[in-house]
Design brief:
Helices cover 25% and strands 29% of the residues. β10 (174-180) and β11 (183-188) form a beta hairpin. The strands form three sheets. Strands 5, 6, 7, 13, 14, 15, 16, 17 and 18 form a nine-stranded mixed β-sheet that branches. Strands 1, 2, 9, 10, 11, 12, 19 and 20 form an eight-stranded mixed β-sheet that branches. The radius of gyration is 21 Å and the shape is globular. The longest helix has 18 residues, at 64-81. With 380 residues, the protein is of the alpha+beta class. Bound molecules: flavin-adenine dinucleotide (FAD). Residues 11-17, 34-37, 44-46, 48, 51-52, 173-174, 201-205, 209, 222, 224, 268, 314-316, 341, 343-347 line the site of flavin-adenine dinucleotide (FAD).
Length: 380
């Protein structure tokens, strides 16, 4: 047993855990962070160069107050770290008027008075000539949308946490944790540590690390594609991020490929995953997957279905209702849990760090998180 005593141990230093470690250390807590891989690695859910950030939240307007706080914290993180952790490009949310993407974005914008513009297909084509929506499609344009850069964000939070005195250990796998007296003991492949509180941010490893926690999480393999522009096509780099919902309800989304081919685009399907586990995920991207993506891109942003330059896999951790799990553990007083981010968590990373620091230090938070209560999902 290590003789150093900590206030809080953070298990998993990916998107959420790195933010929690920073916010806890910033409040003067003695923090130990434990991560099985390297800083800002590509084996979990927080890699691949870019993540959409937006406020007109079609998933549920209840997320908007958290997004408004997250945006403040994105700006703070950027100025504290000196890193371009996010960039505002504007965002186009395209689909038929009845699509979730368009109508849900409009609902959230109206409910929270978020600045937005509505464009018909011809107006989209005129303002953003790279796009070619169908005549019956509409778009909501949100000027505040853009993207975050996951690797830079994780590294910024880790650096700032260390600057504030956190001890961060990489290449160390947590094997288990248990309540002990008025605290918690954590055992790894290298040692045993004690702390008053533990914050568990396991990403796709939730089914393993939270075995006795009856929240059903399904892990899914997702694929990211980087395509170059076809000859003669204007570069995509100064375009907005987009989410497009086709008539079949399937959503695809894209960004300027900042870390890929010049003028190219990074695109993916939103929810077209294959169930997997972190141990069994197929990391090879197959030609038929590349072709399916190119043919979809051709419909929305013709000319950006150019050569496939790179592709990568990543994991979603889906809850049955696709809302997050953020709470004190229902059966373990000194344990806080953040998991099940269901493919849309990254834009919330800074505010989740703040919420986890609130929960670990005070047991409660002023942020609205009832939507994320695990008891809604627990099967008895
Ligand atoms: C392809 C793709 C596209 C996405 N696009 C968007 C988007 O555009 N916008 C958006 O908001 N969100 C998006 N998301 C979702 C978002 O990226 C995730 O919700 C978020 O990154 C989850 O963070 P996390 O901290 O839960 O997981 P992770 O970042 O994976 O962190 C979990 C960490 O725990 C560590 N760990 C696990 N087990 C152990 C152990 N036993 N011991 C020690 N360490 C351990 C892991 O190594 C890992 O580092 C996307 C996700 C993917 C995969």
């Amino acid at each position: 047993m290590s003789h150093v005593s900590y206030d809080v141990i953070v298990i998993g230093l990916g998107g959420m855990g790195s933010a929690a470690a920073f916010h806890l250390a910033d409040r003067g807590q003695r923090v130990l962070g434990l991560e099985k891989f390297t800083p800002a690695h590509d084996k979990g859910s927080s890699h691949g160069g870019s993540r959409i950030i937006r406020q007109s939240y079609f998933e549920d307007p209840a997320y908007v107050p958290l997004l408004l706080r997250s945006y403040e914290l994105w700006d703070e993180l950027r100025s504290m770290s000196g890193k371009e952790v996010h960039r505002i490009t504007g965002g186009l949310f395209l689909g038929r008027e009845s699509s979730v993407t368009f109508s849900g974005s409009l609902l959230a914008s109206r409910q929270w008075s978020l600045p937005h513009e509505i464009l018909d297909a011809a107006q989209v084509r005129e303002a953003f000539p790279t796009f070619d929506p169908d005549p019956d499609e509409m778009a909501l344009f949100e000027a505040a949308a853009g993207f975050a850069r996951p690797e830079l964000t994780v590294q910024a939070h880790l650096d700032l946490a260390e600057n504030r005195g956190a001890t961060l250990q990489f290449g160390e796998t947590v094997l288990g944790w248990e309540e002990a007296g008025d605290g918690v003991t954590v055992t790894t492949d290298k040692g045993t540590y004690a702390a008053g509180q533990v914050v568990i941010c396991p990403g796709a490893w939730a089914p393993q690390l939270l075995e006795q926690f009856a929240v059903p999480i399904v892990v899914e393999r997702q694929v990211l594609h980087w395509f170059g522009a076809s000859a003669g096509t204007a570069a995509y780099e100064n375009n907005p991020i987009f989410i497009h919902e086709a008539a079949d309800g399937m959503q695809d989304y894209g960004f300027p490929a900042i870390d890929g081919p010049d003028g190219g685009v990074k695109v993916a399907f939103f929810r077209k995953g294959i169930e997997c586990t972190p141990d069994t995920i197929d990391r090879t991207v197959h030609p038929h997957e590349i072709e399916a993506m190119q043919s979809r891109v051709r419909q929305t942003v013709p000319g950006l279905d150019g050569p496939s330059v790179h592709s990568a896999t990543c994991m979603y951790s889906n809850t049955p209702d696709e809302h997050f799990v953020i709470a004190r553990h229902p059966d373990a007083t000194n344990v806080t849990v953040a998991c099940g981010f269901s493919g849309h968590g990254f834009k919330f990373v800074p505010v989740v760090g703040e919420i986890l620091a609130d929960l670990a230090t005070t047991g409660t938070t002023a942020h609205p998180i009832t939507l994320f209560d695990p008891r809604r999902l627990v099967t008895v």
